[in-house]
Amino acid sequence: MRGAVPRLSLTLLAAESGARLCAIIHYLVRGQLGWFGLTVACLVPGYAAQLLSILWFRADGHAPGCCLLALHLLQLGLWKRYWDVLRAAAKAGGGAGELLAQLGDVCVLRLLEALLQTLPHLLLQTYVVVAVDPAGFIPGVSAGLSLLSLAWALVSYSYFTFLLKPGHLSPPAAVILCLLLWRTGMLGTRVLALVLFARLYSFWVFGVAGVHWLLMSFWLGAQQTDIVAQPCRWRLFNCLLGAVYIFCYINVRPGPSRTRVAVFYAVST
């Protein structure tokens, strides 16, 4: 199962990237330069994950050479990390601690890239399909693959955190499938609701999302999350996670989370 997770992650990442490239070419060929520019702009936040990947390579004692830097510049750094995980899984049989560390790094980095890059692209392409070109096949396919890739990034992160718990084995495929369906449904309905609100009320959607973001940020601050030690970084972390909570719930605290999940869904709905 540990080999199947990075293999599926790499497949979805490749499919999502290919569909995004097709969408860029689609807008360029049709002369829709506004949507072309916005679609290209969605790529820029993804470099945060690439930069962090380079810093982690350096922290692990691997001096980044020209080839590695070029891969990250082309936003292929996570592809290399997935490839390294697959090679380590083939050699270690899925039980080595080094394999788990590599899997954890790439799961966290992929989740960060998905939230910073895939999510804005998903919102943009969904808006195009709903409000501009309902018959647009390429934007629709790109939005669908982005939704699936984002949901899988959340599932793979949950899978990694599950493996970190003492005495826990790999969850069965049925559990992974249920998690994927839950994440896909949750994200899909949230994105569609925001896009439809933006279609009807235009820029008022930023006011609604802003209120939700403030509520979630204050709520996270009230929980005294200790994942970040420094006060300034702790506030910044809560603000960033509060923005993520507009779309989905991510558990960042150890222990039972039923009460927190119930509060989140009560506010979200």
What would you note in describing this structure?
By secondary structure, the chain is mainly α. Helix content is 78%, strand content 0%. It folds into two domains: 3-201, no CATH class; 204-268, no CATH class. It has helices at residues 4-29, 33-41, 47-59, 66-73, 77-92, 97-132, 137-164, 173-201, 204-222, 231-244, 258-268. The longest helix is centred in the middle third of the chain and has 36 residues, at 97-132. It starts with a helix and ends with a helix. It comes from Rhodinocichla rosea. The chain crosses the membrane at residues 33-56, 137-162, 174-197, 203-222, 234-252. It is found in: Cell membrane; Membrane.
Radius of gyration: 19 Å
Could you say which structural class the secondary elements and strand pairing correspond to? mainly alpha
Number of helices: 11
Q: Mean of the pLDDT scores?
A: 87
Topology:
Layout: H1 4-29, H2 33-41, H3 47-59, H4 66-73, H5 77-92, H6 97-132, H7 137-164, H8 173-201, H9 204-222, H10 231-244, H11 258-268
What is the gist of this entry?
With 269 residues, the protein is mainly α. It has helices spanning 4-29, 33-41, 47-59, 66-73, 77-92, 97-132, 137-164, 173-201, 204-222, 231-244, 258-268. It is globular, with a radius of gyration of 19 Å.
